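Backbone-to-sequence.
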């Protein structure tokens, strides 16, 4: 246990108690009219002239929709997400808790998810001397102290997260000072509020013994420091977001966490032996997509912590870290969630294709992390967890198909957090992305086009000119804002990202390559 953990947990709860006990009025950034909001259309990106696609039989990734074959349904959760958004009415409730599907008492009688959305209307001060910075011992973050930094973050949030993860009947997000984004009820299951992250074929993790295709489920929370930015964007009603170059910028010290679970249990994947399981009310994975939901267990596999720390990460403003489940570690379930690694930049000066042996200076991977968690690291070994889908398989570039290409990283994916999104999540020459056969067309690894996704720039600078920067927050850019736009304007713009889905078979583009996985 980190020596600061108990004191800092108490400090955090003291701040939260002051906030919760005071008469917090919803003043400040209130809802504006649509005309005053001046929000660009999400599908404006489609009007820009795309680059020339790769040679071959190229198919726009949005050429087939879920309605292409009446009476059937797509396998990919991405298409299901878009369809769920487009079923929202103009009067949809942005603060609804779930998709309306509630398990019978005979199946589940525990607590249900409650959306926490009473965002602070005044900035909340972070700790004066953050323990994660203290863990660096006055030195720049690097291979000698990055894991200590992650463990200090883990200890700081331990009290609340142990309740969320392992004592759900006692979890009260609002009282604890943790918050969620609005507008996602149509994709949230009712027990824990998770939604689909990715689907992975068994061969992705064959080396660690995965026996079945698996689906992951994710859930994101913002602490009270970070939630001030949610209030600045969404206001009191969440009907008319305020989108400026500053409204979506998170205060210093903001913490965002994401839990990721897998449908694979220990009998399906030996590395999950002893892992904590959550009951979820979802359509069973690997079954008919039209099947009714049922209560099923999912294993807690990954836990991400990101913190706004411009002192430690002056180029980007953020430090991303990932915990993964390791059954070999003694102790309780929280002790078994160990650091996979941390990153605070995308190493733009390291071309990992041209110089594969060049060391990364802005990513540290824990050498003792379990092997399964390192099987899907990003380009050149940059940080990316097993839920995060950094590997494109198969991929197409330079007129040829390759079996797999590590094509992203935590920060690379999140660098596309802008509104409207004018670039795909992965290095793709076009928006919409395109396919050749069953392969996703990508930029040539290591090329100037590829390197666009591996820059170091702060979150107040968008990846593409003419867009609103959203400070690395992909829930804003890829989930809640498209859902809001569909509900209020009848057009989500998400078609630009949809794969050419093959029904009841292997999708021509792997689902994990075509969407953001939850944070």
């Amino acid at each position: 246990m980190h020596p600061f953990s108990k004191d800092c947990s108490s400090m955090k709860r003291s701040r939260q108690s002051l906030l919760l006990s005071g008469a917090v009025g919803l003043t400040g950034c209130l809802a504006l009219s649509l005309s005053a909001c001046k929000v660009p259309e999400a599908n404006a990106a489609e009007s820009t002239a795309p680059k020339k696609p790769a040679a071959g039989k190229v198919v726009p990734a949005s050429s087939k929709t879920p309605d292409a074959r009446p009476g059937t349904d797509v396998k990919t959760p991405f298409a299901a997400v878009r369809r769920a958004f487009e079923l929202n009415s103009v009067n949809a409730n942005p603060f609804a808790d779930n998709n309306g599907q509630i398990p019978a008492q005979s199946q589940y009688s525990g607590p249900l998810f409650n959306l926490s959305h009473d965002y602070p209307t005044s900035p909340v001060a972070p700790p004066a001397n953050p323990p994660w910075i203290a863990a660096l011992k006055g030195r720049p973050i690097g291979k000698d102290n990055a894991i200590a930094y992650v463990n200090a973050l883990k200890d700081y949030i331990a009290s609340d997260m142990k309740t969320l993860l392992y004592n759900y009947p006692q979890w009260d997000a609002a009282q604890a000072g943790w918050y969620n984004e609005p507008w996602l009820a149509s994709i949230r299951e009712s027990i824990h509020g998770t939604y689909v992250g990715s689907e992975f074929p068994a061969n992705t993790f064959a080396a660690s013994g995965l026996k079945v295709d698996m689906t992951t489920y994710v859930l994101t929370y913002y602490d009270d420091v970070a939630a001030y930015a949610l209030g600045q964007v969404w206001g009191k009603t969440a009907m008319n977001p305020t989108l400026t170059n500053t409204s979506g910028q998170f205060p210093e010290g903001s913490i965002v966490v994401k839990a990721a679970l897998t449908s694979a249990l220990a009998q399906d994947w030996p590395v999950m032996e002893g892992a904590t399981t959550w009951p979820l009310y979802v359509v069973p994975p690997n079954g008919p997509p039209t099947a009714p939901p049922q209560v099923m267990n999912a294993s807690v596999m990954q836990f991400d912590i990101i913190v706004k720390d411009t002192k430690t990460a002056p180029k980007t403003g953020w430090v991303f870290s990932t915990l993964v489940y390791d059954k070999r570690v003694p102790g309780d379930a929280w002790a078994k969630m160990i650091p996979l690694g941390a990153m605070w930049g995308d190493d733009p000066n390291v071309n990992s294709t041209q110089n594969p042996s060049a060391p990364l200076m802005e990513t540290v991977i824990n050498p003792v992390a379990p092997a399964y968690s390192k099987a899907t690291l990003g380009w050149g070994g940059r940080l990316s967890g097993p839920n995060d889908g950094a590997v494109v398989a198969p991929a197409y570039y330079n007129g040829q198909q390759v079996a797999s290409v590590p094509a992203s990283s935590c920060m690379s994916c999140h660098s596309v957090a802008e509104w409207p999104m004018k670039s795909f999540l992965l290095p793709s020459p076009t928006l919409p992305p395109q396919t050749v056969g069953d392969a996703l067309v990508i930029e040539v690894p290591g090329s100037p086009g590829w390197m666009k996704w591996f820059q170091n720039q702060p979150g107040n600078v968008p990846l593409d000119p003419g867009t609103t920067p959203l400070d690395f927050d992909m829930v804003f850019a890829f989930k809640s804002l498209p859902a809001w736009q569909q509900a209020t304007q009848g057009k989500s713009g998400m078609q630009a990202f949809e794969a050419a889905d093959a029904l009841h078979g292997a999708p021509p583009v792997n689902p994990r390559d075509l969407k953001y996985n939850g944070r």
